[in-house]
Structures are given as C-alpha cells and as structure tokens.
Amino acid sequence: MNIQAIVTDIEGTTSSIDFVHKVLFPYARGRIADFVRQNADRPEVREQIEAVGREVGDDHIPLEEAILHLVEWIDEDRKITPLKALQGMLWEEGYRHGDFTGHMYPDAVEWLRRWHDEGIRLYVYSSGSVQAQKLLFAHSDAGDLTPLFSGYFDTTLGSKREAESYRLIAEALELPPAAILFLSDMPAELDAARAAGMRVLGLARQGEPMSSQAAAHRWCRDFAEVNEAMRAG
C-alpha cells in the first residue's frame, strides 16, 4: 500500500534535541515561575495550574506549590500536559520577541516540502503541545512551514509509547494504518506505531543518542534516506 500520510516526531527527527534541551527548556525554566505568578488569573493559565493539582492529587493546590512541581518536571524532562501547555505559552513569547527561531534540519525542510508537493499529507505527533509544535514550525530557521502540515497531535491524545494513540491518529486521518508512515528517533514510539499497523522508520542523526532496542527497526541518517526507504517499501 502506498504511503498517503507521514506523521513525524520533532526532537531528533525534524529538529535537533540540543535545540529543545539547550534553548527551549532553559528559556522556560528561567521564566515559568514569574510567568505563572503574573498570569495566574488568566483562564488559560488557571486551567493549567488546576491541571497540575490534579496530576499530584491536590484539587486546591497553592500557587507556589504548583510552581515547584512545574520546575521539578522541567528538570526531570517530564512529559506532563499542563507543563507542556505552559511551556508553549512561554515559547510563544520568545518566538514573537525574536529571542530564538526553531531549529530545523535542512534535509527535513527539503523533503517535507517535496512530499507536500507530491500530495502526501503531513502531520506532527510530539510530546510538546500542539501550540508549541505550531510555533516551532511557524518560526523556524527556514521560515513559516505550517502550510505544509495538515494537522498536529500531542499527548492529550495519549502516550507516544502506546499503540492506541496511533490507532486514534489513523482514525482521525481516516486512513488505514498501513497507508501511514511514522518517523521518530525513539524505538519505543516506533514499536507502538508498528503495533497499531503503521509503517515506521527511525531517524539516527549524527550525534544523537541511540538505544540498544534500535535493532528492531530500520534507521535512516536523514530524510533523503527516509524517502529512499519509503519508496523501496
């Protein structure tokens, strides 16, 4: 079956892990406490503070305690939805102020454009919030890439390591899983997508960490190799 849609991860796939961990995360960590204190009355921020409370089993969590959890989760690189949502709000400010642009591998930009022009539908599935995903691609090193994408998915859908999440994506795309290619640098995510019936390819970019579990999948060094592997079937 021909590939009709490609769903891609971000970190280590379209963008450098270093950009996330050395630029975005420190930017959010240094500002999240003041941001939450100054904006706690905004409905969208209050909603996330309450979500932090639900995560830790405290429906009436004090503001400062919520902030402590948020900072701790950043330090632990936790994939927790309210943290991702608040980080997205902070990164929006950073992008809009020109504090940084979203790193993109040049080969990813080239082939995303080519695949889009060929009529292959492109989607993103990342642990970062949909808002954060759109911001990165809208303010990328290569300009605004959001017109290339047909949709975005984040962890509000479910864990990236659970097959059910990928089944839900296939349902949302109204395509058989075998017509969808998922790209990631994480073997556990590739395992889950394959279990849901999707075709999968791993990205093993130079300098990015590899797992001992990687042997179960085919790995590509860049998107040009992804294209070759995809055409080979």
Topology of helices and strands:
Blueprint: E1 5-8, H1 17-39, H2 43-56, H3 63-75, H4 81-96, H5 106-117, E2 121-125, H6 130-138, E3 151-153, H7 163-173, E4 180-184, H8 187-195, E5 199-203, E6 219-220, H9 223-232
Parallel strand pairs: 1-2, 1-4, 2-3, 4-5, 5-6
CATH level-4 homologous superfamily of the largest domain:
HAD superfamily/HAD-like
Average of pLDDT? 93
The share of residues in helices is 40-55%
Strand content: 5-15%
Q: At the first level of CATH, what is the class of the largest domain?
A: Alpha Beta
Alpha carbon gyration radius: 18 Å
**Strand tally:** 6
* Domain module tally: 2
Distance between the termini: 9 Å
The CATH topology of the largest domain is given as Rossmann fold
